[in-house]
Amino acid sequence: MDKKSSSIGSSAIKVLNVMKALKGHTLSGLSNGDIAKQLNMPAPTVTRCLATLIDAGMATQLSNGRYALSVKTLEIAQAHANEMAHASDRINELNQRVMAASRH
User: Fold this and answer.
1) 43 with 77: CB under 8 angstroms?
2) CA nearest neighbour of 22 among 57, 65, 83, 66
3) Which of 7, 49, 62, 69 meets the CB 3.0–4.6 Å disulfide criterion with 18?
4) Boundaries of every domain in the chain
């Protein structure tokens, strides 16, 4: 990364790392402290990253005060899963057609 973009890139990487830390905690969430400890990052930095994610609609604060990935983020994950399932179905269909044709 060049010097001009290093501070912007560094901030973006921190935000993305916080987002990744939330993975697998959709129902119970993680506290700011949990994330800070996991990422070895100062709590105020985590707070700023979480604010960015919330503003972008990618994270949410749960009723228990902890943080989790938002429905918007989960929709992205579901869209990917749907695309992969569709691709798998198309591959299976093509394989069946090839196998059927090779029997004749």
Assistant:
1) no
2) 66
3) 49
4) 1-69, 71-104
- Asked: is 1-69 a CATH 3.20.70.20 domain? The reply is no
The predicted-structure confidence for 58-76, as pLDDT tens digits, reads as follows 999 999 999 999 999 989 8
User: Which residue matches tokens 């993305």?
Assistant: 16
pLDDT per residue over 26-53, tens digit each?
Answer: 999 999 999 999 999 999 999 999 999 9
Answer for the pair 30, 68: CB distance below 8 angstroms, yes or no: yes
Confidence (pLDDT) at 97: 85
Say if CB 69 and CB 61 are below 8 A apart. no
DSSP secondary structure letter of residue 40: T
CB of 20 closer than 8 Å to CB of 67:
no
Structure tokens at 11: 């901030």
Other Cβ atoms within 10 Å of 47 Cβ, number: 14
Q: Check pLDDT > 60 for residue 1.
A: no
The tokens for 21 are 């830390």
